[in-house]
């Protein structure tokens, strides 16, 4: 199932509604500024919210003794980071997009979208490295902070880190699924090719076995 300039993947794709071109963001059709980073402002925001959330968590005790104020600030930064990465930075920096929706029967569906092959070349390699480094490093950092909060018996901060880990982990899962989905067709083709070669070899061996003349024994060639 394809949109104007992108490829869409998902679980139960036959139940995923088609999106009109007017409602779908045009992948690869954005303005491409000159320079090493095609979207420097987007790259800045990709790093800013998650970095500020971690720094606020680590150093909030230096500026305020109120847990409520620190909690609200961290949650706002985490929410802005989640929304920005899910809806903007992934689409512009690496040409990937994912979302989840609930159908009328209450069933959850994940949908993954990626640029087509010719459009994928428009992304900046520097932005791709920055995107994936930040996307992977953030859950790792929050995991370390989770262990620190657990072993220090700080359960209120443990709850904060769990929420942060869930939000950053959701984005990581969604974009990894987008990346894997792009190679599924290639993988299926490789499997089909390997299966075909194996089947051909088996058929060849069977034909050779049946066409081979039966071996003659030494006794039948002996003259009494």
From TrEMBL:
- Kindly list the GO CC terms recorded for this protein: Golgi membrane
Q: Does the keyword Transmembrane helix apply?
A: yes
- Name the UniProt key words of this record, in alphabetical order: Membrane, Transmembrane, Transmembrane helix
> From what superkingdom does this record's organism come?
Eukaryota
Membrane-protein topology: Multi-pass membrane protein
The similarity comment for this entry is:
Belongs to the TVP23 family.
| Protein name, as recorded | Golgi apparatus membrane protein TVP23 homolog
- Per the UniProt record, the source organism is Meganyctiphanes norvegica
């Amino acid at each position: 199932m394809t949109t104007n300039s992108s490829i869409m993947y998902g679980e139960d794709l036959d139940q995923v509604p088609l999106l009109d071109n007017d409602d779908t963001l045009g992948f690869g059709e954005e303005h491409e500024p000159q320079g090493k980073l095609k979207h420097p402002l987007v790259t800045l925001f990709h790093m800013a919210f998650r970095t500020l959330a971690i720094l606020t968590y680590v150093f909030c005790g230096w500026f305020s003794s109120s847990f409520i104020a620190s909690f609200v600030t961290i949650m706002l930064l985490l929410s802005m980071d989640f929304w920005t990465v899910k809806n903007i930075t992934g689409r512009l920096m690496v040409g990937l997009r994912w979302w989840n929706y609930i159908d009328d029967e209450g069933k959850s569906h994940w949908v993954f979208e990626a640029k087509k092959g010719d459009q994928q070349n428009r992304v900046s390699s520097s932005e791709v490295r920055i995107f994936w480094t930040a996307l992977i490093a953030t859950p790792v950092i929050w995991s370390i902070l989770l262990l620190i909060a657990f072993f220090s018996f700080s359960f209120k901060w443990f709850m904060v880190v769990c929420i942060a880990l869930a939000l950053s982990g959701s984005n990581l899962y969604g974009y990894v699924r987008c990346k894997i989905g792009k190679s599924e067709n290639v993988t299926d083709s490789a499997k089909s090719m390997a299966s075909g070669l194996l089947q051909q070899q088996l058929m060849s061996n069977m034909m050779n076995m049946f066409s081979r003349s039966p071996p003659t024994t030494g006794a039948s060639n002996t003259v009494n």
